[in-house]
Amino acid sequence: MMREGLLIVFHTISTVQFSFAVYYGFFELHVPVEVSKMFSGYAGKWKFLTFWGAILQALFFFVCMLNDWFGTNAVNPKKPPLIRKFKDFLYASLAFPIAMFVSLTFWGLMSIDRELVFPKAVDPYFPWWLNHLMHTMVLVSTLIEMILSPKQYPRRLFGLSTVSIFGSLYLLWVHVIHYKSGVWVYPLLPLMSVPVRVLFLVSMVVFSGMLYILGEALDNFVWGNEHNKQQKSHAKSK
Asked: Residue 143: is it exposed, middle or buried by C-beta count within 10 angstroms (0-12/13-18/19+)?
């Protein structure tokens, strides 16, 4: 019962914080075009994977809330309801790998050269707390979710295909934006030759797939023994 209560509180807080981050980022965040062209013009805030990632987290944790009330958080339910199946699939195939991807790549590139991803000139217009909600809390929240709530992972091919398709569609979107506006979403892309850029983008899709496998491995590390116990219990009850 204590875990159920923690999940309800955690999922509610997470839904609110990411929903507010999306609202503030879309309606209240205004960066002058002379400071950065990235936040205005064609596609606006929809350019950024960070923004898509925050929407994904808000959606995922809302689904978690629905599952808290109408589904189940049992370790290995015999007949999981549809909302639980959707929650587990969404976490495994998109919420976890995309959150990890956004946070790790953002802070990794920031440590190398922040001008490549988040120019210093933007700081007065982009609140520090919003930066951490979108680039830090996505990772923290998704790891807490893994610790508190067991998942039934989909077939690996299905999960890997989903995150790979999502990543590929986003990269296609980046090129559509460049074609329509002449602007690259991320300043490091025009610094690369075409072959290097292609190799870099392919490696990013591969990296997202590796993060999917990492999530599966971490879930098995945290909940593997409990899954085995429940499976044996179900087998005895037959």
From this structure: middle
Chain segment 7-66, per-residue pLDDT in tens: 999 999 999 999 999 999 999 999 998 998 888 889 999 999 999 999 999 999 999 999
Contact 133, 18 (CB under 8 A): yes
Tens digit of each residue's pLDDT (9 = 90 or more) over 144-202: 999 999 999 999 999 999 999 999 999 999 999 999 999 899 888 999 999 999 999 99
Alpha-carbon distance 203 to 198, whole Å? Answer: 9
- Rounded CA separation 18/137 (Å): 9
* Interatomic CA distance for residues 146 and 219, integer angstroms: 7
Written as six digits, the tokens of 53 are: 């990632």
Q: What is the DSSP string of 84-140?
A: HHHHHHHIIIIIHHHHHHHHHHHHHHHHHHGGGTS-GGGTTTS-HHHHHHHHTHHHH
Return the closest-CA partner of residue 51 out of 124, 131, 161, 108: 131
Place of tokens 């998704």: 142
Contacts of 120 (CB under 8 A, 6+ apart): 114
